[in-house]
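Contributing new records

If you add data, match the layout below exactly. Sequence lines come first and carry their own label; structure lines follow with theirs. Keep one chain per record. Anything else will be rejected by the validation script.
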Amino acid sequence: MDGEGAGEAEVGDGAASGPIYLYKVIDREVVPREKVKALWRAGHVSGLFNLPTEELFNACRDFGVKVKVDVRLMKAKEDGAVLQSKLKTLIERSVDKERELFELKTKVADLSQANLVQEEQFKRRLNELAARNKALAKERKKTNKEKTEAKDENLRLKVAELERVRQQLEEARERERQNRERDREREKERERKGKAKREQEDAEEAEAQARADADRQRRKHVAAAASNEGGERAKQLQVELKRERELLKQMALENQKLTSRIQQLMIENEEMKLSSSITQTDHLNRKLLMSFMSTMDSLRRLEDDDDDNDDDGGRDGEAEWEAHHGDGFDGGEQQHNQKRMDHDHG
């Protein structure tokens, strides 16, 4: 190679013409090759050494450092200080790169280890989250089941409440129907009571009318007997009339008893108005009718007795009776009517 077109070549391949001595900056101590390797591996080399150039670059090659030197400068035998400066710069850069690469590898290893740790932590965290999710799912399922049961229970209670309200409504309707039925029964009872009262009044009026007719008939008979028989017959008629008067008094007493009995039956009818039936009312009406018929039978018997005495009566006896007794029968009828009015007002 000439100096014009030599280019670049790696130092240590025999291109240098003579040995180039590199001196250590600190103490100029000659350092063996193995020690240089050890120092370079440890990253403690920071200066130049007085080793032969080939050995130095072989050591650099062992460390993987690619060092290139301008052969022309070496052939021209440039100043050793310049060459040393260039070599120092190249070696320091190579050492720094090697140290940086070593640090990067260390960081990569640390990062890998940290990554493994983080991955392990992530897996553990993932397992914890999975277990937690499983527990939450179980708890959620339990909660949903409890909510469903509570909802079902609430619906059951609502259905029971609706059933209770429906039952109460049915009972209220039944009570209302019973009340309407009782009201109808009371109305019927009032109608029966009014009918019985009217029948009683009619019976009393008929009895009073029959008694008045009987009195008038007797007066006619007495008058006829007095005119036909004279004084003796009048006395006999007076005795008979006295007897009939006693009978009338007895009839008045019986009538009073019947009136009391009717009042008692009306009181019993009033007491039984909530529980009475048509049969009981008919029974009461039959009692009243039997009492009325008994009274009418008594009156008919008296009329029959008067008919037997029609041929024996006279006007003189009637005049004597009126002179002796006055208008006693009419007064008795007025007294009976007054008693009935007092009874009605009572």
